[in-house]
Amino acid sequence: MEIKFLPYQPHSFAFGGFEIQMLSTFNAIKQLGLNVNKLDVWDRDDNFDILHCWGLDMGNYENVYWAKRANKKVVVTALLNYYESNIQKFKFHLSSLIYKQRLIKEMLPSIDMVVVVNDKQAEVCHNILKIPNQKVSIIPNVVDDKFFNYRQSSNPENPYILAVGNICNRKNQVSLAKSCLEAKIPLLLIGKVLNGEEKYADELNNIIKQSNNITWINGLKENSDELIKYFANCTALALPSFAEQQPIALLEAAVLRKPLIIADRAYARQKYYNNSQLVNPDSISSIKTGLKNVMNNPVSYIPDIQPLLECKSVNVANAYSNVYHRI
Question: Is the pTM above the cut of 0.85?
Fold first, then answer.
C-alpha cells in the first residue's frame, strides 16, 4: 500500500499551521514504516493506492475527481468553518445552491474518508455537510516529541505572555498588543507577516513603538530549540484569534503545562484546551481582564494533559494508519 500526499497550494505561496501539520503528519507516518511519499505533479507514474489531499475546498476538486477516475482511494484532511452564526449558515446554504459549496458537495461522494481535528468539526461534517458517520475520522494535530520530552530546569524569572503565529488580522495580535500595553504586561510576539497583511503589521509596529515591554521576533523555525525555550519560559500563551480550527501553538503550550488565553469562539471549546481563559476578541477590556486573571492565578488555566497525549506523533501516525487500512 502506497500513499501520496498532496498539498492544497504550493508552500511557497502560503505556509502556516496547516502546512506545518501536513509535514509533521507525513514524517510521523513515515517513521511508522508506511510507504508514504509526496506526489510529484510532473510524474506520470500512477502506481500508488491512496491519494491523501490536504484541504476540503475547490482547489482539490479536480484532484479528487481524477484520483477516483484512476481508481484511487481518497483521504482528505479538512479544516472546516464552525458555522457559529446564522449569517455563516445562511451563506453556506446559499453557496450550496450557486457557488463553491455546491462543488464541494459534488466532491464528497468521491472521498473515502474525511479527517477532522476534533468532535466539533465532526459535527459540522454530519450536520452541515451531511457526510455519513462512517466516512469521518477524528485525528488531532501533531505536537512534536520535543515538546513532550522537554524538561525545564528552573522556573522563569521574568514573566511574559507569548503569542506565536503568522501576523495577520485574523489572529488579532493588534488587540492583544493594545491589551498588554494598557495592562503593562510584557508580551513576546513570534511570527512572520502573512502575505497581504503588511498594513496590519505596520499598525502592530506602531503599538510596539509605544512600549518597552513588547517584543516581536519575525519568525522562528517550527520545533526549533529556541522556539521551545520561549514556550517553556513564558507565563502563558495567548491567541485571541477570530477564527481557528485547532491551533498547534495552543497544543504545544498546553503540553508544556502553560495556561492558555483564547478567544471565546467555537475552536476554543475542544477537550485539548479545557480550563483555558476565554476572552472576547472584539474587546480590549475583556482581553486585558483575561490577561490579568491568568497572571494572578496561572495554574487555574492549564489544560488537562491526558487528552493531549493523543497529539503525540506516534499516536497520530497510528490513527492515520488505521484510516488507510480501513479504506
Answer: yes
